[in-house]
Amino acid sequence: RKFELGFAPSSEETLRLLKNEKIELKNALECGAVKFSTEQKDYYASFIKRISFPIYDYKGLLVGFGGRTLDSENKAKYVNSPQCRLFDKSRVFYAFHLAKDAIAKQKEMIVCEGYMDAIAFHKAGLNNAVAVLGTALTEQHLPLIKRYEARVILCFDSDSAGFNAAMRSALLLSTHKIGGKVVQLEGGKDAAELVANGQGKMLFEALEKGVELSEFYIRGIVSGFDLQTPLQKQLALEAVQRYTFTLEPLVAEAYSNLVAQLLGVSANLVGLSSK
Predict the structure, then answer these.
(1) pLDDT tens for residues 67-97?
(2) Which of 5, 67, 107, 122 could join 50 in a cystine, given CB atoms 3.0 to 4.6 angstroms apart?
(3) pLDDT tens-digit readout, 23-75
């Protein structure tokens, strides 16, 4: 009830509903409820045999839907409404309209990877959780985060796609002077799985252990190098510097000991500020 989950049946049933509600198909097409097949020269529903997740903007206005298939043979497990005048997934957080009061109060927001994870966080009592509708944060998300002066806790899946999303998001946030940390759930599990298995306590424990954004990003950079040779250490340092040179000098230099430790070199050899 809280998240207004529903079900999108067959295409025929959806088209019949639109007709009964006297909603013109061209309007349904414009807001992404239906699509038009040039081959069949006819309309069909955007969501067919899927659990539906209404998506609201930060003002609480319905702007689109997400859908999760119940058909194991369907390659697209999740789909969103298509981009349209109402819906731009690069600037919308799923469940923000439900989380914004908690975010405003706590000055902190949890950003996870999907609808079910966001719902799981809320079910566990963490009502400041939202989800991205793509693979990572975008610059279009930043004004909303800054408006609420919120620290961001990134909690993406622990697979390679989740790691890459966390890296991109940590880079974006840290270079725009937004604080926060990255949380990685152990054992390849996601928030929805933990809560479903009655392991919500592990969520709280993981949130306590999060790694600060810039530290996570620096560790991620260094992990991409084989540090067995001085040349590789130098290349790793240069990669880290390309990142830290974008930070304020005071912030950049705060990571000198970390980088020296990771590379196994003296701290006075690590210059992380360009100024």
Answers:
(1) 999 877 777 888 888 888 889 999 999 999 9
(2) 67
(3) 999 999 988 889 999 998 899 999 999 999 999 999 999 999 999 998 777 77
Let me know if 6 is exposed, middle or buried by CB neighbors in 10 A (0-12, 13-18, 19+): middle
At residue 194, what are phi and psi to the nearest 5 degrees? Answer: -65, -45
Q: State the Cα–Cα distance between residues 167 and 223, nearest whole angstrom.
A: 12
| Joined tokens for residue 87 | 């819906």
Helix H or strand E segment including 45: strand 42-45
Amino acid symbol at 65: F
List CB contacts of 70: < 8 A, sequence separation 6 or more.
Answer: 49, 50, 51
User: What burial class does residue 234 get, using C-beta atoms within 10 Å of its C-beta: 0-12 exposed, 13-18 middle, 19+ buried?
Assistant: middle
Helix (H, G, I), strand (E, B) or coil at 31: coil
